[in-house]
Design brief:
Elements (H helix, E strand, L loop, with lengths): L8 E9 L4 E3 L20 E3 L3 H20 L2 E2 L6 E4 L3 H24 L1 H11 L4 H4 L6 H5 L3 E8 L11 H46 L5 H17 L5 H14 L4 H5 L2 H19 L4 H14 L1
Helix pairs in contact: 1-2, 6-7, 6-10, 6-11, 7-8, 8-10
Length: 300
């Protein structure tokens, strides 16, 4: 079968769920009749537990999504990421750790649920009778929390032998559209990788040129971005990778103390950082990179 170009990748969709703990606000909750609420107003929600808990689950969920985003590329479907197959085991291992942390916090919330309700009842005794019916039982509450992901290979639809001509035509069209989306995805992935490289090396270069302090964490950010780029660069973007390798080589063994009074070294590193930024910021070769990658896949 002809390749679709996605053979070195898998798609990952991450989902986190928590109890929103909200109920629709009514006019009666505000001591009004329905016709007393002006039409320009839209009533919101009443909250059933403190925002601090929502923030906890939001932060844990965002941590997981940020980790996945940092180790993947944008995909053609919203809320789905693509990662190299070679990195899948490592990414899954980290997601398992984040899942355990998320569900442990959910279990803590369930264990404290009755106390949280009691605090809310004491804080809002006058309207408690309007809040109480919206609380789930503990067993129902536990099922409202989850952390899971789906991994799937990226393949076009395959038509069965002997299908009607119109079905074959529809599948052929779907495959063509997949190829177009694939081309876009690879180009977006290359730009995504390069953009982060540019941001990192320009920060280093500007600090060196402006005479600002270059701390060890700035130097380490360049080392990290080189590792990150090489890890995700399955597209053969050799110009940027080679330029990064050259900069990393000059940085090896260098720290804040080495740079502090060494103008020649500052100029050398700033020049190398500018070379990386120039290579990564030159986007007119992105289509050629995606095309070369596709041809490589087809011939493998």
């Amino acid at each position: 079968m002809k390749s679709n170009g996605f053979e070195e990748m898998v798609a990952v969709q991450l989902n986190t769920r928590s109890w929103p703990g909200q109920a629709k606000l009514s006019a009666e909750d505000l001591g009004l009749q329905d016709d007393e609420v002006p039409e320009i107003f839209r009533l919101g929600n009443k909250r059933l537990y403190p925002d601090e808990w929502r923030q906890v689950f939001g932060q844990l969920g965002n941590r997981a999504r940020n980790y996945l985003n940092d180790n993947s590329y944008p995909f053609v479907m919203e809320y789905v990421r693509a990662i190299p197959k070679r990195n899948l085991a490592r990414v899954m291992e980290r997601l398992e750790e984040l899942k355990a942390e998320y569900l442990a916090k959910a279990e803590e919330f369930v264990e404290r649920y009755e106390a949280i309700k009691d605090e809310w009842r004491a804080k809002y005794p006058d309207i408690w009778h309007r809040l109480a019916p919206h609380y789930p039982t503990c067993s129902q509450l536990r099922r409202k929390f989850d952390f899971f992901w789906t991994v799937f290979e990226i393949k076009g639809a395959e038509v069965q032998e002997g299908s009607a001509p119109e079905i074959i035509a529809a599948y052929d069209q779907a495959r063509t559209e997949l190829q177009e989306r694939y081309q876009e995805m690879v180009e977006e992935a290359v730009v995504y990788l390069r953009k982060k490289v540019v941001e990192t090396v320009q920060n280093l270069s500007s600090r060196l040129k402006d005479g600002r302090i270059v701390r060890n964490d700035t130097l380490e950010s360049v080392r990290r971005v080189e590792d990150w780029f090489k890890d995700l660069n399955i597209f053969g973007d050799t110009k940027v990778e080679d330029a990064l390798t050259q900069l990393r080589g000059a940085l090896n063994g260098t720290d804040y103390e080495d740079l502090k009074d060494n103008e020649a070294l500052k100029q050398q590193l700033a020049g190398l950082a500018d070379q990386v930024a120039a290579a990564a910021g030159k986007l007119d070769d992105v289509s050629a990179i995606s095309g070369n990658y596709k041809r490589f896949i087809d011939l493998s």
